[in-house]
């Protein structure tokens, strides 16, 4: 067994401690069980989530450098 340090959100830690106490297990056991469950969920044979991008017909997009905030706002204001 390896000892490690984790930085956890205070609220998440409180919830984990409370749940471990209710289940009458150590916080270490609770975290191990949660990690095992999460790791096993990734091996369920499902393909990774892929977002389908769709496009619509419409006006030609403005020829503007989107990293130039002022130019972008000018184009938006004209529409």
Question: How would you describe what is shown here?
Answer:
The mean pLDDT is 84. 49% of the residues lie in helices and 0% in strands. It has three helices and no strands. It has a domain at 10-41. The chain is elongated, with a radius of gyration of 24 Å. It is an all-alpha fold. The protein starts with 9 loop residues before the first helix and ends with a helix. The relative contact order is 0.06.
Secondary structure elements and pairings:
Blueprint: H1 10-23, H2 27-41, H3 69-78
Helix pairs in contact: 1-2
Strand content: under 5%
**Cα Rg:** 24 Å
* Unreliable runs: none
The major sheet is characterized as: none
- Helical residue percent band: 40-55%
Task: Provide a count of the helices.
Answer: 3
Mean pLDDT: 84
Distance between the termini: 62 Å
Keywords:
single chain; mainly alpha; 3 helices
Structure described in brief:
With 79 residues, the protein is mainly alpha-helical. The chain has a domain at 10-41. Helix content is 49%, strand content 0%.
